[in-house]
């Protein structure tokens, strides 16, 4: 059978690059109110506050670099494809560290911090600087309609059809640095297991989908992901 690897990543893979996780003790949601900052209702009520939150995170991202876990996943994609396998990396992260490390078969299911979208016409454009309520859409010209191209609570994640298609055919699945709290990503391990994939959780500690994992490795991503990636390649090369 053709080896088919699907990897789901979360905030933990970028933690050692200096980007905050969400639900750890000092995580983003311990300091900021997700209802005000990560919902369409919060944005409608106070768009300037939401822009401020994402502008600060965009500035933080400009100072961040991919770590050894990102590098290992990019090398794994290239090596896996070279051995004739199928590969898909689905990230919940809105940072661009997987892109910068070199992953190409990549879905940003919760959007991208370095993109903005017009609420009026839907046009998506690159966004490397601060956004504000005064910005105009470069496509339709409307004022005050630009928003971060991210997926807030209650909104539909991106690329799900491709992700579920890959999960249905997966022979191997790994969840890396995610608490397994947020749906639909939290259901990926179960979907992969139902498809017959061998499943693995790599994180600092067990998340909420624990019973769907055949294998586990706990520790900092920069240490455990390179070791796991090497073991995966040894397995498919054997
Ligand atoms: C390390 C480490 C190191 C640390 N090394 N590891 C009730 C039941 C079920 C579902 C719902 C419900 N009520 C509402 C819902 C739906 C809702 C949801 O899931 N809510 C739950 C909270 C209950 N989901 C949605 O609304 C989603 N849309 C949706 O469901 O649409 C309808 C639909 C229906 C049917 C099919 C499909 C769709 C949208 C979710 C949008 C999430 N948005 C956010 C913020 C926006 C982006 C941003 O600002 O960045 O996305 S929330 C936030 O959580 C962010 C993340 O991508 C997401 C996941 O977090 P993640 O990555 O898991 O981070 P943490 O912090 O939770 O975990 C980090 C892990 O790393 C920990 O385990 C650490 O131990 C570990 N770690 N350091 C390795 N160095």
Summary?
With 238 residues, this protein is an alpha/beta fold. Helices cover 35% and strands 19% of the residues.
Which residues form runs of ≥5 with pLDDT under 50?
Answer: none
- Overall CATH architecture of the largest domain: 3-Layer(aba) Sandwich
Query: Mean pLDDT across all residues, rounded?
Result: 97
Structural class computed from helices and strand pairing: alpha/beta
Strand order of the largest sheet: 3-2-1-7-8-9
Span of the ends, CA to CA: 14 Å
Radius of gyration: 18 Å
Kindly give the count of domains. Answer: 2
Number of DSSP strand runs? 9
What is the fold named in CATH at topology level of the largest domain? Rossmann fold
Strand content: 15-25%
Sequence of secondary-structure elements: EHHHHHEHEEEEHEHEEH
Bound molecules: ligand BJW
Helix content: 25-40%
The CATH homologous superfamily of the largest domain corresponds to TPP-binding domain
Outline type: globular
The tally of helices reads: 9
Largest sheet: 6 strands, parallel
Can you identify the CATH class of the largest domain? Alpha Beta
